[in-house]
Amino acid sequence: MRSAEARFDYTAAVMQATENAHAGRHPNHQRHNAHAAPAPAPAAPIPNPPAAQQDVINFQQEAEKQQWQQLQREAQYVERQEAERGAVVQLQAQQAQRQAAEEWQCV
Spans of biased composition, class Pro residues (predicted)? Predict the structure, then answer.
């Protein structure tokens, strides 16, 4: 969760710095940027983007890995259930055949 927050903080800081720089270069645009969120006071230092981005990538990869493992477990569970159902159906069919054969012999 920390990685996502760091990425958000970095993105927000970059966007705010861009807007502030843009407004500073173009005084007429300050009016247009009035809707923008005010800069934090004092401005927080921008984290090292590559490290923050790597944290996000690592977090996403771990989440994808865990999701894949969960899907694999679910697929194996479904396969086992299907195999068990198939075995039950086969056993029931064999019992029905035996019962039919016994009834046929009794007739």
Answer: 39-50
For residue 37, report the phi and psi dihedrals to the nearest 5 degrees: -65, 140
60/2 Cα distance (integer angstroms): 12
In the Cβ-directed half-sphere of 25, how many Cα atoms lie within 13 Å? 5
The tokens describing 82, both together, are 């299907």
Cβ contacts of residue 23 below 8 Å, gap of 6+?
29, 30, 33
> pTM of this prediction?
0.42
Query: What does the angle CA 6 – CA 54 – CA 63 come to, to the nearest 5 degrees?
Result: 85
Report d(CA 74, CA 85) in Å as an integer: 16
